[in-house]
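FW: tagging you since you asked about this chain on Friday. Here's the raw sequence from the shared folder, copied in full. Didn't touch anything.
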Amino acid sequence: MFTIKKRLQRNVALMIVGFLSFGGLSFAEENPDAIRNLSHAFHQAIAKVKPAVVSISAEKEARKLTEEEIPEILKPFLPKDFFDDPTIPKRGWQGSGVIISSEGEILTNYHVVKDADELTVTLDDGTELEASEVAHDEGSDIALIKLKEDKPLPFAVLGNSDELQVGDWVLAIGNPFGLSQSVSQGIVSAKGRTNADVPVGFEDGFRFKDFIQTTAAINLGNSGGPLINLNGEVIGVNNAIQTAGRIPANLGIGFAIPSNLAKSVIDSLKHFGKVRRGFIGVGLNNEPSSMKYFKEEYGINYGALVKEVNPDTPGEKAGLKTGDLIIRFEGKKVEGNEHLITMVAGTAVGSEVELTILREGKEQTIKLILDERPPEQQLARAVPSMGILGIAVETLSPEIAKEKGYEEDLKGVIVTRVLPDTPAAAWKIQVNDVITKINEQSVESKDDFEKIFSEFVDKMREKGRKKRTLLLYLHRAGSRMHPDYVGPEITIE
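HL: got it, structure written out here
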């Protein structure tokens, strides 16, 4: 519930922004008390949280490449002593975090601590302490680490992110570019942002998107640090920024993971050792032009269109069909695919939920009981290109091509997901890359891609070959090195 104090803070903040924007310095000159009150609110909020904000230094030890990591096609060109010495040098990186208990538990992003052999945490007073990872969740990019320290430590309070409103003042604290305990201010630009262009998850390839969008500056090194309200409560975990092209500069569009989501993830990790997410068992259409039909025919420009229903899943048992448009989930309007995935994944496994669908122009209500979402690799086995090569693709439409920076007449498939530890990942294939050829055969649609790839795998099996190099012609928007050929080596059982 919002307090009178919060309403006053918001009203004063909006007045200040408005008058400073349209009235020059006159408002500041005529209303010095309002400016001082806002500054005082900033000071108090920062003072509450700053002692609990930490800098995290992560290190990965140098190691040798193994023969299994090198594609067969490259091995003949390597010197004989190639594997004798470490070929991947020691590397380090930095991020931020916030202490959330007196026992030294630290909330941060998983990508800050992922693959680290050593974690060193620097406290607000400059003290350096060792830390170790307790648990993590790839899908939300949340990690919990713990300091190796016996004495009680200052900690921050996790607030209720559901109480945030667009326009609220927020402060980001962290370690951008190694500049410790830096503070930036801004407002909440949007809530529940599910279409943010941020990296996918890690081991399971799934990313739970439900972000607070903010104008508070979030830069390299801010990841994992707290986003706080003017009550000095942590209401978000700074996570990513929107950039222009390949330049990692702040454009006033930053994203933070809501504190309520972080709390839910931490509680689940502590009780179950993992995060259990809801699952319907349907594939959703990513083609923007398909939604034009529903807008023109029924005046609906929202929803998630079912393109396939997986067998023996809640969706199949409840009677969902290809072509159904899911327009509401538990009474809430479905803005799009990511929004539906977020709501389903955030609902407890075993819950009975109600879907409102549009089928043949008529609304229907369907009830089903959510299963637990299986690992992404298990889902991938049904699609050869995902289970073997490690990517998911969709047909490149003119609309998507324009949005992603390609010529509108480019034909091919666009990569929508890359699973880690796969041939595609080893060859640095990225989300939003476009593939126009497989083994010199032109690809103009997802059906083309899957057909050519499946035929290639079938021929491997016929000839008893378990390994073979695949030739892909790859385009990458904004890259001078592409289009070019890449040759991932695939293995089949």
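FW: The radius of gyration is 25 Å.
HL: agreed, and The chain is about 25% helix and 30% strand.
FW: great, closing this out.
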